Amino acid sequence: MARLSWAARLYIGAVVLVAAVLLIRGPFGDIRWWRSVAVLGLLLVVFESTATLLRPRQLAWSPNSSATLAAVVLLGPVGAGLVGACTIFGMRRGPSLAQRLFNTGMMALSAYLAGQVFVAMHGQVGIPNSGTFPTVIGPFAVAAVVHVVTNHALLAGVLWLTSDRDVAGRRAPLGMSVKLIASDLGYGAFGLLIAALWSVTGVFAPVLVLIPLFVARWAVAQIAEQQQAYEATVGALCQAVETKDLYTRGHSDRVSRGSVMIAREIGMRAERVEAIRYAGMLHDVGKLGVPTRVLQKTGKLTEEEYAAIQLHPMRGLDIVREIGFLDEALAGIMHHHERIDGRGYPVGLAGEEIPEFARVLAVADAFDAMTSTRSYRGARRIDEAIAELRKWSGTQFDPALVDAFVAAIKREGWPRPEPPEPPVLAADDPTAIIVQDDDEPGAPLRVTDSL
Ligand SMILES: [Fe+2]
Fold it and tell me: What pLDDT is attached to residue 366?
């Protein structure tokens, strides 16, 4: 509770107290009634224990409302409230005691109110039979709306009262709230299905209705988590490269974007477009293997230093070759400095020998280098950079890909990168004559025999 204001503590206390007072008065049913409470409560605990964590953190979502709304129909207001109160037994790590108490009070109170509304609208409490439908649908729908709206209103209240700015900043944005409300209503509808099946399958109804859905949701969450892990891996590597090479801030992102523009323009299928997006982000990852003093050197490079820079495509391959999901991106990373006329590096491939990914990357890479500020010159205008691409089309770049890129830029535009902070140079530094970036078209070629 240390991070909560007194107002928030009072609010949580009030929610829990009101829920407890309403539920403790009963009426309670017989042993079968309690068994149904236990089954639906167990279902809710399973959902609560496997809730999906959302960004911003500290918010979690689970399809709890399907259990509590089934209880609204089968057990009435008090039974629904007791099922909601089972939230306290959730085994999810993370929530503090205050959060756990609040979640419990919130679920119990909103389920109880939904039950009262269901009864007030003449919804028939108990196991539905063929005569229950369709008259039960209206009261159930209103009860579901009351449940979900009460839930979200109580949640908004506690977030509003949270004193910690960080936590307050974690309030769900409006768009997310709308989606969560829609999800709750959608899963809430399964509550009616559980209640309807109860007459046939008894306590197995929740299993039959919700476990398949639960498994599907779990599988999708696994895929999403894997995707996030990929993004985090690639993002961390990009960050590391850009930390070493100050003048390439945002370069990887823009090369990635440009490569995707070209890929779409030439009609690459979706999986390859995704792969080339990674390739663009990681194309210069091999610079991690180039000494920082060489990357940040502002004077003329020696032959050895040039050779070290020209090793970066191979170094890049060494660094990321074990990352399974990169597939075709690896060829792009290794060959993005090859030229159509065969005078590039590291291998000297020519024309169609150069993997398509590498030819795409080469165009986007050079274009971004030209339109970004470098230590030795300002950013070139878009039309100048396009003219330069055309000039080297057929010798350095694949002409078809240059055409595709120009067409895509004319349609979609190109982001203007922010100029980086220039390094501090001594005014009388005789070495302050800057070498040209290796990514620029027509950059001096110094393939050494060390490759
Ligand atoms: Fe490169």
Answer: 95
